[in-house]
Design a protein that fits this description.
By secondary structure, the chain is of the alpha+beta class. It has 2 domains: 205 residues, 2-Layer Sandwich (Cytochrome Bc1 Complex, Chain A, domain 1), CATH 3.30.830; 206 residues, 2-Layer Sandwich (Cytochrome Bc1 Complex, Chain A, domain 1), CATH 3.30.830.10. The chain is 46% helix and 16% strand. It has 19 helices and 12 strands. The strands form 2 sheets. A 6-stranded mixed beta sheet has the order 1-2-6-3-5-4, with helices on both faces. Strands 7, 8, 9, 10, 11 and 12 form a 6-stranded mixed beta sheet that branches. The longest helix is centred in the middle third of the chain and has 20 residues. GO terms for molecular function: metal ion binding; metallopeptidase activity. InterPro entries: Metalloenz_LuxS/M16 (IPR011249), Pept_M16_N (IPR011765), Peptidase_M16 (IPR050626), Peptidase_M16_C (IPR007863). Keywords: Hydrolase, Metalloprotease, Protease, Zinc. This is Peptidase M16 domain protein. It holds the Pfam family Peptidase_M16_C.
Length: 469
């Protein structure tokens, strides 16, 4: 019986294919790097991750706060982004432009960004400047100095940014406002940069209250990567350990669900140089069980050079340009695709091409080989972080709660667990049930010319297209 049992067990040892073995070998650096991470949680809830790197003279810090535009009440849109600007303009012990001047003096590089779910701050400095930098970071995060003059200056800066990046660009304002209506009555229903009126009306007192409510240690992840001095943990404790949380507890994330249905609209912009097509699909948030499959699906359909959309236009292309940057928030996701047509191609034809590609995938699925390639592409992008300490620090500070102890390998294991059947099911669930279509249209005379070119023979339309462009 014992011999039979052992023999039977041996027969059921899983066979590792060459592709699976290659992926395991590719992923090995993630596991090796993760083993070097030192995890520490301060008594006030601040999460700290330290990753010492040999043969490195620099240190990269990244601080991410669990606060973004989703936390802004009515009348205070844009506050998270505005406050990000304020934190570079003075703190209790480093007033005015002291922060920027000090970073310049030590050859430090720094920046920040705000999104729907988070605000992050990151810098790279020489190792010997780490203690000073931690002091500066703690001072501005805990004790920002807001004055009427700095608030006014940064309001003007944000309004100028709004004009440059949104209002002065063809299609952007109208398209953004239309897409945001698809998330109306949710925390994601307004732009990260906020409304012009709310930004102009922001007050010092309201911004101070925003800081008090949302800048708190239990909402912060701090990652430090590079040439770490021996006392790094001690310095973090000294600078951040006495920081107290507000009395109110952190709010639990809202549960939201969106249905995909066909929405068709158009916007006309007299500054538009050429027609374009914007398509969008509601998907899922980062913590959803389908998030990994959706991520691979977006790459397969829209993003890689070998994507279905790109492959469909390698010869005699119907589009001049395709562009896709999926947006994944904690509780919702949006896949998107912008396509600029050739002169001979209508927007309806472009939309039909995309529908056909999605229908083929939803019906026929994907091969094991194609799925392995998708996973390898995902791994290659993830492995690039290891060679770039600044990006690695930012990735560690963006760790989901479910990956708190496996910030590098947790996401990979979910990606690796995706099967062809899971990918096909995601295509059927999130991409085959309808989508948002927005036609971006230029003035009438360009539309008229474009329609005329669609009726010309291909050679003629191509020649005229080259002249127009």
């Amino acid at each position: 019986m014992l011999v039979t049992s052992l023999t039977t067990a041996a027969l059921f040892v899983p066979v590792v294919t060459a592709n699976e073995l290659n992926l395991q070998q590719m992923a090995a650096p993630l596991y090796r790097t993760e083993k070097q991470i030192i995890f520490h949680r301060l008594d006030n809830g601040l999460q700290l991750r330290l990753l010492p790197l040999a043969d490195n003279q620099l240190v990269s810090l990244a601080s991410q706060f669990n606060v973004g535009s989703r936390d802004e009440p009515s009348g205070q849109t844009g506050y998270a982004h505005l406050f990000e600007h304020m934190l570079f303009k003075g703190s209790e012990n480093a007033p005015g432009d002291s922060y920027a001047q000090t970073m310049s003096a030590i050859s430090g590089q720094f920046n920040a960004s705000t999104f729907f779910d988070f605000t992050n701050y990151y810098l790279t400095i020489p190792s010997e400047a780490l203690k000073l930098s931690l002091w500066l970071e703690a001072d501005r995060f805990i004790r920002p100095a807001l004055t009427d003059q700095t608030v006014k200056n940064q309001q003007d800066t944000v309004l100028e940014e709004m004009a440059t990046s949104i209002d002065n660009q063809p299609y952007v304002r109208k398209a953004m406002e239309f897409l945001l209506t698809q998330a109306r009555d949710t925390p994601y229903g307004h732009a990260v940069i906020g409304s012009r009126e709310d930004v102009k009306n922001a007050t010092k007192e309201a911004l101070k209250q925003f800081h008090h409510n949302h800048y708190r240690p239990d909402a912060m992840q701090l990652s430090i990567v590079g040439a770490l001095p021996e006392n790094t943990t001690l310095w973090v404790e000294e600078e951040f350990g006495q920081w107290q949380n507000p009395e109110q507890a952190l709010k639990p994330p809202l549960k939201m669900q969106f249905e995909n249905k066909l929405v068709h609209a158009e916007v006309i912009d007299e500054r538009g140089p050429w027609p374009a097509l914007l398509l969008a699909w509601h998907t899922v948030g980062q913590t959803h069980s389908d998030a990994a499959a959706v991520s691979l699906l977006e790459a397969y359909l829209f993003q890689n050079r070998s994507s279905l959309i790109k492959q469909s236009g390698l010869t005699e292309p119907d589009q001049l340009l395709t562009y896709s940057i999926p947006m994944t928030m904690e509780q919702m996701g949006v896949s998107n695709l912008i396509m600029v047509p050739r002169a001979k191609t209508s927007l309806d034809q472009l939309a039909g091409n995309v529908e056909q590609a999605i229908e083929t995938l939803a019906t026929d699925g994907i091969s094991d080989e194609d799925l392995s390639q998708l996973k390898a592409n995902w791994l290659n992008k993830r492995l690039q972080l290891i060679d770039r300490p600044s990006l690695l620090a930012r990735a560690l500070s963006a760790t989901l709660a479910q990956d708190s102890l496996t910030p590098l390998t947790g996401p990979w294991e979910r990606i690796n667990a995706v099967s062809p059947a899971m990918l096909q099911a995601a295509a059927q669930t999130y991409f085959s049930q309808g989508y948002v279509r927005l036609n971006l249209l230029p003035p009438w005379y360009i539309r008229w010319t474009k329609t005329l070119l669609e009726w010309f023979p291909t050679g003629v339309s191509d020649t005229l297209e080259d002249l127009v462009l």
